[in-house]
Design goal:
heterodimer; A: 126 residues; mainly alpha; 55% helix; B: mainly alpha; Ferritin; two-stranded antiparallel ribbon; 8 helices
Chain lengths: 126, 202
């Protein structure tokens, strides 16, 4: 994305040299946005983990674009992407929270599910 | 104000506990170039920034560093969860265990507790941003050393690589913020004394 994409790619390359690829393959792709573009949540029953990973990806894209826009406030393309991803993130979070419980204390619940759901630092919950 | 989201910025699931690695990685929690120092450095400096771009960069990167602090704490926690006393002793964590058990406490790899002396807020935006640029490079270098030390565990290397990449992007953003301020300072100042005459100050 924008000027960072090249930097990120370069990092991957130099990391690849440092670590044998079979030991350190990155499970996280910077641009899983293509998957999100044609968001098929409705068609395909997604697992909790898959949905959470999409939320993480969109959240990352929004953070990255926000930091970029902080120093490139007149970049129209970045602004358009920020608008698109933040709206998708908002919708997906709403949907996830209705199905699996709150991601923040601002999500209203009939019972206090905030303390029932696991915390992100606990092994196996990511 | 901040809002907590019950999700890590990048997933961490470490299958094999390894207290020896935790002993090194904790430096990015409470060490001189760690995430606690990074977040407090930027969030403190933002108040004194002279332009809107620099304020936003420090605010937003400082916020992201808090998410990284949580990630590093998670790595340390998962590497030490459920380990035996013998494993702790063998890993050289006996002294740490004496004072903190397996809680996550901000210390460096060599056991020095976190101190505000690791950060600066100099009352000078140029000096502050130069410090931030250096801080990002030092954090990148630290993550590279940690990646070297954690070669055997891909579950640990994966989030460390993500964190290393973020240092590089943040370095770029701080550079742009610094350039913005320097350009503004280098502009010639014009004073209009009446409708027909402009005086240029060199």
């Amino acid at each position: 994305m924008l000027d960072n994409e090249e930097e990120l790619r370069n990092c991957d390359e130099c990391c690849e040299k440092k670590c044998p690829p079979k030991v350190a393959t990155c499970s996280y792709k910077f641009s899983p946005i293509q998957d999100i573009e044609d968001d098929t949540c409705e068609e395909k029953k997604e697992t909790k983990a898959e949905m959470l990973q999409k939320i993480r990806c969109l959240d990352f894209a929004v953070v990255e674009l926000a930091e970029y826009l902080d120093t490139h406030n007149d970049d129209k393309k970045a602004l358009k992407l920020h608008k698109e991803y933040s709206s998708k993130l908002h919708d997906l979070k709403e949907k996830y929270q209705k199905m699996f419980g709150p991601l923040s204390i601002y999500f209203p619940c009939n019972k206090w599910r905030w303390i029932e759901e696991p915390w992100p630092w606990e092994r196996g919950n990511n | 104000m901040w809002t907590y989201n019950k999700v890590l910025q990048y997933p961490i699931n470490i299958k094999c506990p390894n207290p020896a690695l935790a002993k090194f990685i904790i430096s990015q929690y409470g060490g001189p170039d760690g995430e606690l120092a990074a977040s407090l450095r930027y969030l403190s400096q933002r108040f004194g920034m002279p332009d809107q771009n620099a304020k936003a960069v420090l605010n937003d990167i400082g916020t992201e560093e808090l998410a990284h602090l949580e990630m590093v704490g998670t790595i340390v926690h998962q590497l030490t969860k459920g380990v035996t006393i013998d494993e702790i002793k063998k890993a050289g964590l006996g002294a740490y265990y004496t004072d903190h058990g397996v809680d996550v406490f901000p210390v460096s790899a060599s056991g020095v507790p976190w101190t505000a002396a690791y950060i600066a807020a100099k009352g000078d935006p140029i000096a502050n941003l130069q410090e931030d640029l250096a801080a990002e490079q030092k954090a990148r270098a630290t993550y590279e050393k940690l990646i070297d030390l954690c070669k055997d565990d891909p579950d640990v290397i994966d989030p460390l690589r993500f964190l290393r990449q973020r240092e590089i992007v943040h370095f770029q953003r701080f550079g742009e913020a610094l350039r913005g301020i320097q350009d503004k300072l280098a502009e010639k100042k014009f004073y209009t004394t009446n409708a027909n005459k402009e005086i240029c100050e060199d």
